[in-house]
């Protein structure tokens, strides 16, 4: 029977192997994104064996996947621009909100 401690050891071995491999051979940026996605998939499989969706392995997999997607967004230039908030609400209220927001940020 596999215990959580055994799964954590396997995850640590994956971390070590994936940390040592880049030092031996530098990768291109997109290859690094794929490498991170692979690591997240491996951690997801371990988390499934952990039988608890809220375990440390599933959190680690999610963090690695978030890092991979952030890097991919950076490489493609798809980083979201916060920009101005859209006008929403009932007819006529959006323009009042925009006017109030403009007045609040007006220096004089």
From TrEMBL:
UniProt feature, compositional bias: Low complexity: 98-108
Source species, domain of life: Bacteria
Location of region: Disordered: 75-108
Protein name from the UniProt record: Uncharacterized protein
The species this protein was found in: Streptoalloteichus hindustanus
């Amino acid at each position: 029977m596999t215990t959580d401690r055994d799964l954590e050891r396997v995850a640590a071995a994956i971390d070590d192997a994936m940390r040592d491999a880049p030092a031996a051979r530098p990768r291109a940026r997109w290859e690094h994104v794929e490498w991170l996605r692979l690591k997240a998939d491996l951690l997801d499989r371990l988390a499934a064996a952990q039988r608890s969706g809220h375990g440390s392995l599933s959190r680690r997999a999610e963090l690695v996947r978030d890092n991979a997607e952030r890097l991919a967004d950076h490489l493609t230039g798809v980083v979201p621009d916060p920009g101005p908030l859209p006008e929403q609400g009932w007819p006529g209220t959006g323009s009042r909100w925009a006017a109030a927001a403009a007045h609040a940020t007006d220096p004089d």
